[in-house]
Amino acid sequence: MHFVVGLCLILLPFLIAYLIYYVIDLVYLMLSLDSAIYFENYKSKLSGEMEPTTIMIIAFLSMLLLAIIVIQCLEAAAAQEHRLFSDAIDYNNNARNLAQIV
Questions:
Q1: Three-state SS at 55
Q2: Which portions of the chain are predicted below pLDDT 70?
Q3: Which superkingdom is the protein from (predicted)?
Q4: Of 73, 21, 64, 79, whose CA–CA distance to 46 is shortest?
């Protein structure tokens, strides 16, 4: 299970990069004045000719964003665990004090 989650976390930035790359290309196609020529170039890109540097840059930025999100989630989970642990210690001390009184 951890292997599958790790694999998804590794491949997710590249999937995001491909999607962003194609969305940017489609927006450029819609805004292009000479869309017939651009569309021919776009079809050749879809057949496999892609700019790897652009994909790698977008994938790297997506990976950084994903890492920041994961780190923030881990910090929030650690803070919650610390809060629960300190509450458990307080309850234990309160129970001990109550037992001494009784």
A1: helix
A2: 1-2, 29-52, 54-55, 102
A3: Eukaryota
A4: 21
CA distances from 76 to 5, 11, 29, 30, 70 (A): 20, 25, 42, 42, 10
Domains held by the chain: number:
1
Short-list 48, 47, 57, 64, CA closest to 17: 57
The residue type of 79 is: A
pLDDT of residue 98: 74
Task: List the Cα angle 54/56/61 in 5-degree steps.
Answer: 100
94 token code pair:
């309160």
pLDDT tens-digit readout, 59-72: 777 777 878 888 88
64-91 burial: b if 16+ Cβ within 10 Å, else e: eeeeeeeeeeeeeeeeeeeeeeeeeeee
pLDDT at residue 92 in the model? 77
